[in-house]
Predict the 3D structure of the following.
Amino acid sequence: METDHAYPVGGGRRSPVERLSNPYGDDKVIAACSLFGAMDTSGRRFSGSLVATAIANMHDRGNGLGGGFAGYGLYPNFKDSYCFHIMFLSKETRHEVEDFLRRHFRVHHGEEIPTRRGARVSNPPIIWRYFVDVAPAQDGLGSATEPIVEADYIVERVMQINTGISDAFVFSSGKDMGVFKGVGFPEDVADYFRIEDYAGYAWTAHGRFPTNTTGWWGGAHPFSVLDWTVVHNGEISSYGINRRYLEMHGYICTMQTDTEVVAYAADLLMRRHQLPVELAAKVMAPPFWEVIDRMPEDQREVALALRQVYGSLLLNGPFTVIICRSGEMIGLTDRIRLRPLTAATSGDVLFLSSEEAAIRLVCPDLDRTWIPMGGEPIIGRLKTSAPVVSPASRNGIPVLTGEEQR
Amino acid sequence: MITGQSTRLRSYLPPRFLARIMDDRCIRCQVCVRQCGWEALYYDERNDCINSTEANCTGCHRCVALCPTHAIWIEERPLQYRPNFNWRPEAIEDAMQQAESGGIILTGMGDDKGQTIYWDKLVLNASQVTNPSIDPLREPMEVRTYLGRRPDTLDIDYGSMKLRSPLGPLRTLEVPIMFSAISYGALALQVQEGLARAATEMGTFWNTGEGGLHRSLYPYRDHTIVQVASGRFGVSREYLDNSGIVEIKIGQGAKPGIGGHLPGNKVTAEVAATRMIPMGTDALSPAPQHDIYSIEDLRMLIYALKEATNYTKPVSVKIAGVHHAAAIASGIARAGADIIAVDGLRGSTGAAPKIIRDNVGIPIELALASIDHRLRQEGIRNQVSLVCAGGIRNAGDVVKAIALGADAVYIATAALIAVGCHVCQGCPSGRCSWGITTTDPHLAKRQNPDLAARRLANLLKGWEHEIKEMLGGMGINSLESLRGNRDHLRGVGLSDTELQILGVRHAGM
Amino acid sequence: MADASADIRQGRIVEVNAAGLYYKDLNALLRKMADGPDGQDVAKIVLRNVAGQRYIATDLDRPIEVEIHGTPGNDLAAFMNGQRIVVYGNAQDGVGNTMNSGEVVIHGHSGDIMGMSMRGGTIYVRDYVGYRVGIHMKEYLDKVPALVIGGTAQDFLGEYMAGGRIVVFGLDLGPGECHHANFIGTGMHNGAIYLRGPVRDYQLGKEVGVVRPGEGLWSPADWDFLRKCAEGYVRHFGGEVEEILRGEFIKLYAKYLRPYGPLYSWRN
């Protein structure tokens, strides 16, 4: 990837995707929202209709200009292949992208994502999914000195499609997961994508209230890279420096929406820099200096160093995010909790929501509901899953599941 | 020895100022006469009134500030040349002055010409609706800053929760504003003590400049930056040990590319002891550091200083902002510096050739923006802290500098103003009536270190409050989220090229 | 702290199944039932299956009681004037926003900014409350709002508080456990916060002073007030008044009416 900026820092050339996502040239798209997440930590898969019902209950937190869903465990038949959900504005673009995919991957299967005619969504684009593998011989792969190169390879190809091929945009690119999103209220988007037909062990959902009226489906949440997905409520005031920091590490923020930086930050911190999620949360919502000053010596060193090194990734301003990847779901608010988050458990299921009412609606019988403190991550993990990348789980850091909190 | 004409030529230079005295208010206390270090005022005994020798007046306003009845005011002396856009009065008078002296025109303070002040063309953002502004008086608002090199990643032992390789030395600033280098000799010791105390009280740093560190200031060592410049005055193990940060001075915004002379008449016994040179001799700072003729030599000096301090102190390198500042800064980072300080066109000085001060170097805003951008392009921004110096006038400038990419700023003129300076540019004379830029004990004792420290700390407190208000308005509660966050800046009345260099959009976009 | 139930007349009890009702329709129904011509004898409305409907009881004219089963939405009892709300469950954010009078009783926990800018009436919460509870509560003449919280609060309790009373009993604290909130009473410039149980100095805003029973600024009226709060709490949620009052109390008061006077510099 070029080290040069994806687009000039001044008011010059723009990438085609940015032009699409951001027709007014705003430096970022501002959106407030509702969000919801549910994970069955036992790995049991459940229908997307549950989260669709829950998010619909928070209808008034959105304005009909965006809704979306991410599901995990959706494609057991292709669970070892990368699944690309890609939107196109034209058939020609689709052919161009398919050529690109064939050049860079082994494509096992491609199909149009089934949709329901008559759903109340506006101007749906063409949306396909492809199950692909990275062929060992391709593009410098297979070098023993670069062990995590496959994921980087995917990230780079996604960036190439998003910035290099006009009118195409990758919704998601992870294994055994997928993102469905579009312009409309979340319940209408769910209807359009027939979300009830999919079953997954974890789902997140989002209803969007953007302050500008783009009609672009890529701008809806969740935002995703690899199997990371992020749904976000709030505005990230530190976006400008978060973006510049991530650009320094090769992530190109194509959409100029603040949520995108959360997905890339998660990928950088937890996949590439191998930080356990508990510490990644401390980067995004760090303790105050005065709290660090009061910490016992053994905790202070790491807390201080994290802030000193990763200060540019502090997510400032009001936010709640639900970050998901295979086997793991994390809810996090900003450190002075300017946006709401309620957590709840029922048996093996962990719920995260902007409002408790939405959880109660789909699961009246809860073991526990609580409001986490600002900056305190709520983490759900598949009980059956092998340690998920993070070295922490191999080194004795307590793995939190929903019911162990508090 | 350079010899001048033995007899002075008659001066054609008109006086600049007019001292006016309201006779009915004047109580003939003669405070003004005693306070004027320029000998511009005298008591006329025969007529029982105060009179002036206006040609000596620099407009420093010491008399105005101390007159108990507010009987004095200073006006610009009206003198109308035939209008000429090219030959403005300053150009005419400079030529006159040189015709009389045959010398280089010396001046003090920073460039006073009309080059664009980009701070004034940049405006800040604030939250409305989509994002709450944060109230700094009641909610935490963090402006703490750490200076020094940091790695890109951390190597943590998750068993013990310890860092496998601890970070190098980092220094804490409780406010992101430091006092810039002003050497003892150029500056009265009393003022240096005020700077040192205020820096200590406010949890920031002051900078010795290149004139050594007086022993009486050792107690403030944890908040002291000691400078190592081309003259190496007072540089010793002891000097380095009594510091928190060591700074190599390559250049200064007011006089990039040239050295300096502290005239022998300022080299008193104490200055001599501090600089470790004989009393009364000129203290000559060579133009370059004669052990640095190239970037690999800089690396050698950086590591010499790191060795001499056993890698316990960050090493800063201060340069003047010049045309290739970005490439130079990149080289400095790669040479091992922990901090880069960049001083711009409007940076101040105790004495510099006016022709250099006003014509050499680039505006700090452009230097800063291009350096930050370059270091990011090269992926090495984490390796150094960036300090911006030269022409920072208020908290608004500080916030804009940080948004452009600075970790912290240096201030000098603003600090001197805090202790009385009226920016009269008379510093090279050593006759400063405020007792600031002088080593004359009679003048210098006008500065009381206690009061100087209070004023300086007050200035920083006021700015700190204002910085927090501006941050809160942007919906940010920690300075690191503003640092390099150019989205919060917009330009007004700037060309596309300027906007592109600054990395900001025009207002309205 | 008047007991609002005393004002509520005897009369009919009606039930509403709120399942699937949009908030606007639900609130219109409430208005009709309480203030419409057919509703003049209604004393109590029982809402079942409430799921996130906002603004319940913000615009009722008559002092009736609304009993809520389920989870009411944000801004419950916002601008409320004289009604009584009982929630069997947890409440979300913004309960009692700018409330003028009446009573809210929550059998569970309550979310952020409860009692924001509240000017009168009382809110009882059985468990804990979220962030910035009691922010900018104010009092004027005989209007003195009160929040009585059985558990603890999250950060910024009583931020900018300009009047009224907040009582936090800390019944969910273990032995020796400190209160959880940081920045308690930050920017407080009037009113009082009573905390039962230990708190560390750094948890308090810089504008508050601390008084303990027996000290000069602690008056018998403070005990009277706390007893009333404890009695009200026990009446709603059970427990022992004396047990509550036996705890260790502190009262936080505003050290300055004008905390920010010295902050500004002005010149003619």
The helical segments of chain C are 23-35, 220-237, 241-245. Confidence is low (pLDDT under 50) at residues 2-7 of chain C. Chain C touches chain A at residues 23, 50-52, 54, 70-74, 89-90, 92-93, 109, 111-112, 128, 130-131, 154-156, 180, 202 (CB under 8 Å). Residues 4-259 of chain C form a domain with the Pectate Lyase C-like fold (CATH 2.160.20.60).
